[in-house]
Amino acid sequence: MHESSKSIDRREALRRAALLLGGAISAPTIAAVLAGCEARSAEGERWSPRALTPEQGDLVAAIADQIIPRTDTPGARDVGVHRFIDTMLAEYYSTDERSAFLAGLADVDASARSASGQSFVRLSPSRQRDILLPFDAEAYRGATRQLFFRSMKELTLLGYYTSEAGATRELKYARVPGRFDGCVPFATVGRAWSV
Asked: Measured between alpha carbons, how far is 84 from 61 in angstroms, rounded to an integer?
């Protein structure tokens, strides 16, 4: 989680991320957030992944950007989700969990190469989405390949929504929320609010 004077505490960020994920967060992920897992390199600084190769880091960043692309708010790559995932893999995942995650990354890249003859990161964003659609469709059916994508989505959402931009700009964090107005049309709100 990224620290700032406007940031929320780790427990609150974890609670919000759990709500976004329907309450399903793995034990290593919970431990990492409570311990303050963060991408340690500052933006603009040369980043050296610890659990991933540089190519795998680029692949993680490209997949994360498909999960949370840049819109009027920063995307997953912009807030350093790939660095967060690398830290998670290096410090909080067991060897078996890390190996399964890396095998899933290899599977995504192999699917891209099989479909187009190019690596996933070299494809256009629309072709990248096409490659990820089958992974996403089967993410919760329990097969090994799909468990990877479920973990990838979990880590991306957690890394994003515990970043300052995710927690305050995307969710419009209000430190002291106003009164409760039930049954407000979504169009008047404009975006989901974190509480």
From this structure: 10
Residue pair 58/86 in contact (Cβ under 8 Å)? The answer is no
The whole-number average pLDDT for the span 24-38 is 54
Cα-Cα end-to-end distance for the chain: 17
Cα(36)–Cα(180) distance, integer angstroms: 32
Q: Which tokens sit at 14?
A: 């974890």
Task: Show the tokens assigned to 184.
Answer: 């407000």
What single-letter amino acid sits at 58? D
DSSP structural state of residue 37: -
Phi, psi (deg, nearest 5) at residue 91: -105, -25
* pTM of full prediction above 0.90: no
Q: What is the pLDDT of residues 66-87, one digit of tens each?
A: 999 999 889 999 999 999 999 9
Domain borders along the chain are 10-189
DSSP H helical ranges for 69-94 = 81-91
